[in-house]
Prior knowledge:
The chain has 474 residues and is an alpha/beta fold. The protein is built from 19 helices and ten strands. It is 53% helix and 8% strand. Helix 4 (83-92) links the parallel strand 4 (74-77) and strand 5. Helix 8 (183-212) packs across helix 11 (266-276), helix 9 (217-227) runs antiparallel to helix 10 (235-244) and helix 11 (266-276) packs antiparallel against helix 12. It starts with 9 loop residues before the first strand and ends in a 24-residue tail after the last helix.
Amino acid sequence: MKRATPSTDIGVVGLAVMGANLAxxxxxxxxxxxxxxxxxxxxxxxxxxxxxxxxxxxxxxLDEMVSQLGSPRVVLLMVKAGxxxxxxxxxxxxxxxxxxxxxxxxxxxxxxxxxxxxxxSKLGIRYLGVGISGGEEGARHGPSIMPGGDxxxxxxxxxxxxxxxxxxxxxxxxxxxxxxxxxxxxxxMVHNGIEYGDMQVIAEAYxxxxxxxxxxxxxxxxxxxxxNRGRLKSYLIEITADILRTTENGxxxxxxxxxxxxxxxxxxxxxxxxxDLAEPTALVAEAVYARIVSSDPDRRARTAEIFASATTHxxxxxxxxxxAALYASKIISYAQGFRLLDAASTxxxxxxxxxxxxxxxxxxxxxxxxxxxxIMGAYLSTPDLPDLAEEPFFSxxxxxxxxxxxxxxxxxxxxxxxxxxxxxxxxxxxxxRSKRLPADLIQAQRDxxxxxxxxxxxxxxxxxxxxxxxxxxx
Length: 474
């Protein structure tokens, strides 16, 4: 094993898939890298394999790794979110000095990042919570990077992080300062929530074409390939086409994969944050619940025995209608996500630049798509845009898609094919454009049984009234 000669530019703690590939990316970008993994055999295998010939040195302990680093010391943590991050920080802090920098590159909850930032600031340690998206391939060759935390740390690592980031089509690195405290991990959390939504709307299109239109996996793959040449062009659409055309022993592999989806929690965190901030991310919520429903195939099999399937072919829906419903639902999902980002920015004082956030997602990350160029343009032209769906480009697209969207949802319901994301997005769309909703009745009920009061249409907002419902209380 190659030992260190001081000094290296950055230390990477954790050599699982993401950590190992980021370490290689950092070395390829001209940085001298120290690596440490709690299990020494992992470090040895890494150094004897992918790291051969790289400007990289190994450490058997955290103390040794810290001794290899130049000043200010920069340590990138790529360990499991939660208690493991706190444990490594606890071991590192006694080894560091004022001004040293810890970067958490995992999927940490933004509230944990806020706490760690405050605690470490008191100790003179500069802490960054950095969202990193792109999976194994992105980490190795260029991810999307969403840095937040201590602003004083950013100038010291800006060139390093931008040097390993993906490049957008215009040559801009997909890495830019997001905001103080937990802002970077919040933005990554919303990215992941939107990713849940994107995957669900794609899955619903697949199901509609499979069960509703009777297309084969190969034929559906061809449809997705065609869509990837148009307004839906994206990484997820591209890989969907590849997946559906993959065969094993002459049969579509997709048909052999158990339909039970997993999840790691960031979609749920997005929905929970949206409830705290009173900004509905209804489509993401439906995507999370759809995974939960899918996760118990035995229960679904029992229920299918009890209730005869109502599934029939879609009567009045074409492939073009499915594409329109997918696109419209995608607009609603992103509109909800960006409203959540805006609400968080106000609540936590982050001053998020929503156009910049969209620009970070144009390459490297899982939701990278041509669509994000349009979102970035919308916020650059109107920085205080209250809702993406109100921007003329997107409002025109929703109006154009509406007839097909309604036809798909209506026909799917009649045919017994679940489309929770499409129907949720349509319900949100109808709710947001309704000048009057039945919430007046809800407020009356709340006042009758609990004296919770209500506002009146014949008085200014902010004035609350209670009605003496008398004998009507029962």
